[in-house]
Every structure is written in structure tokens, then in C-alpha cells.
Write a structure and sequence with these properties.
single chain, mainly beta, Neuraminidase, 4-stranded antiparallel beta sheet, 24 strands, globular
Length: 359
């Protein structure tokens, strides 16, 4: 795969910086010192040999080492099964969310873990497991964001996207390791069933049964935003209620805010320092930004059709935005068992007028 130099300008035009000939990237974690980490979900029949990697001089290197990335179904407690969501926290650590799943339909709760990796030592510090009433056999824990403002070590908010449901937001106390489900089975964390409706993509409409997927956190860490993959809906909630000790389900539900629907489907979300919310637009193949104070969206990247299926968006240092293109809509599951994807899969970056919310 090749890396190409980035142009620092205001054109906000995406540039390919890496190509992957066999497996698609999803999660992105750009560090302050310029290091860049990527996850490659293991959802295909042929599993990605590198599940979590660091991009170094255009080459993908297993991270933190080859051993933990090695595929070994008999040793799920000591090897990655399927890392999907990744995020950086300010103490020089990378959090990697292992779904413990080989499909969107379910997982092995014993294998699902949130790994804490020390970037200075390039070593796993520990793994946080989930109780069976938190990570269900039908769960797919896909995306996460970290709230650094609360508790001794912060909290993680995780989207349970499982195709079978019930979907939920999983909250993890990173100090104690305790976790719990919020909004489990609530209408806001799963696409509404509308007869005949399918999200629009470049290859036509598809019916996505996956629930809450992309999530992001406001710069003051008071508001969590999310969208179900199979809809055009947008929701938010005050994070105080997610971390409160013992709120009733009804109390949590009353804090959900439903915003005006978009005209596009989205997979990944991020937020900048001004509180603007970024969406990968899988309908138009571009990047969009929602300005909450004005209740309006603006299309970035100066046009449509840059991507097939923009998967994850992540703002990094030096006003650079990163986007993975995974071609998810061309997977066999949505095409009668036929794989219509055309590698290579690509990682893009572009100059932008925004700083990340949490750097």
C-alpha cells in the first residue's frame, strides 16, 4: 500500500494516503504525535490477519504485536477476535473494542473486551470484560467514545449495534471496570420499521437491520450524539443520565432528544471543538457536518461521490480529517450472497477548518 504526502490547504479535498488490497478498514485513531491506528473488522469469510494495526511509512504493522493479532479461535481470551471501534485517551493509551463476534448477529460475551493499550510501551495494560447482562449473545459492540471528564479514569460509551437486538448504549467505568446498559431496546437505538424503506446508497436502497452505530461526544462531554445505521434519524442525550447510579429506564428515556431527520444515511460520527457534528454520508458518498445552533447540515469536500461507503470519520491534529471507505453496501449480505466489492479499500485524509473535540 502507498502513502502520499498531504496538502495543507483549505480546499477540503480528500486524498488517498493508504490502500489495502484485501481487507477493509473501519476504526481510525490519530494520535497527537502523528501516529495513526486502524482497525480491520473480521466480518468476512477470510479474516483480516491484522485486526488492529499502526500505519507506519505507508505500511500496516500489527499492533501492539503479531501474537495478539494472530487468528486462533481456541484462544479468544488472549487474542483479538474482532476489534472494531478504537479511541485514544489523553494519558497516552489506545482503547480497542473487541466485539467478540464474527458476525453482526451475535457474539461470545466471554471474548468481548475493551482493551487498554499503553502507546509508550506498545503493550496491553489490561482488558475490561462485560457481564452477561451487559454484553448479550446477540450484541455487536461496534463504536465507542471516551468521556474524560467523569470519574477517576473516565467513562466509555459504546454502541451495541447487533442486528438481532436489543440495541443499547453500553457505559463503562474505566476505573472500576463496571459496565451497564442504557436505553436497551428503546426506539431511539434502532431504526424504525417503515415498510418498503431502505437507506439510499450508490448501489441502490438497502434495508439495514443494524441498530445504533455511529456515536460521538460534544467537546464539553455533556451530550452524546448517535444515529441508527438503518435510518436517517439523529438523537442525543445528556451524559449525566447515562452515568447516573440508578436511574429508571423511564427516566433515561425521557432525556432522549430526537432531532430533525436528515436526507442521508450515516455510518460514522465525530465532533469538533466547536460542537459541530460530522457524518459520513453513505447516501451521497461524501462528508457532512451538522451545526446544532443553526439546526442545519452542510456538505463538505466540495461535492458528492468521493466515496462508495464512507465508514468512519475522525478529526486529528493539525486540522486534518481522516475517512475510511469500506464498500459495506457491496458486501454479500446485501447483494444476494454476491460480493460486489472492488478492492483496494482506501484511507483518505483532507485539510479542514476544525480541531478535534478532545485534543
Amino acid at each position: 500500500m502507498d502513502a502520499r504526502p498531504i496538502a495543507h490547504n483549505a480546499s477540503i479535498r480528500p486524498e488517498v494516503i493508504a490502500e489495502f488490497p484485501e481487507h477493509w478498514p473501519s476504526g481510525i485513531a490519530p494520535a497527537r504525535d502523528g501516529r495513526l491506528f486502524l482497525s480491520f473488522p473480521r466480518l468476512d469469510a477470510v479474516k483480516a490477519p491484522i485486526n488492529l494495526g499502526e500505519l507506519i511509512d505507508g505500511r500496516l504493522v500489527p499492533y501492539p504485536d503479531e501474537l495478539v493479532n494472530a487468528i486462533d479461535p481456541s484462544d479468544a481470551k488472549h487474542r483479538f477476535v474482532n476489534v472494531h471501534g478504537i479511541a485514544l485517551e489523553p494519558r497516552g493509551r489506545l482503547l480497542a473494542l473487541d466485539t467478540g463476534a464474527s458476525s453482526l448477529d451475535g457474539c461470545d460475551p466471554e471474548a468481548a473486551k475493551l482493551y487498554v493499550i499503553d502507546l509508550d510501551r506498545n503493550a496491553i495494560v489490561h482488558g475490561i470484560g462485560f457481564a452477561h447482562d451487559v454484553c448479550l449473545t446477540t450484541s455487536y459492540l461496534s463504536d465507542l467514545v471516551i468521556d474524560y471528564a467523569r470519574g477517576k479514569a473516565g467513562y466509555a460509551y459504546i454502541s451495541d449495534s447487533g442486528a438481532q437486538g436489543p440495541n443499547a448504549i453500553v457505559v463503562v467505568d474505566l476505573d472500576s471496570g463496571k459496565s451497564w446498559r442504557r436505553l436497551s431496546g428503546h426506539a431511539s437505538v434502532r431504526a424504525r420499521h417503515v415498510p418498503g424503506f431502505g437507506i439510499a446508497t450508490e448501489s441502490g436502497p438497502i434495508r439495514a437491520t443494524v441498530g445504533i452505530d455511529g456515536i460521538t461526544l460534544s467537546p464539553d462531554e455533556r451530550t452524546l450524539w448517535w444515529t441508527p445505521l438503518g435510518s436517517y434519524d439523529l438523537y442525543s442525550i445528556d451524559t449525566d443520565i447515562l452515568t447516573a447510579p440508578h436511574p429508571s429506564p423511564e427516566m433515561v428515556e425521557r432525556h432522549v432528544v430526537q432531532h430533525d431527520a436528515r436526507d442521508f444515511a450515516s455510518d460514522g460520527l465525530d465532533c469538533d471543538r466547536e460542537g459541530r457534528v460530522y457524518f459520513t454520508d453513505v447516501t451521497h458518498g461524501t462528508l457532512q457536518r451538522f451545526i446544532p445552533a443553526e439546526k442545519r447540515y452542510e456538505m463538505l469536500l466540495h461535492g458528492k461521490d468521493y466515496f462508495v461507503w464512507p465508514d468512519t470519520v475522525k478529526l486529528g491534529p493539525e486540522r486534518i480529517v481522516y475517512i475510511t471507505d469500506s464498500q459495506v453496501n457491496r458486501m454479500p449480505v446485501w447483494n444476494g450472497g454476491e460480493d460486489l466489492r472492488t478492492p483496494p479499500y482506501r484511507l483518505y485524509r483532507a485539510a479542514i477548518d476544525a480541531d478535534p473535540a478532545q485534543f
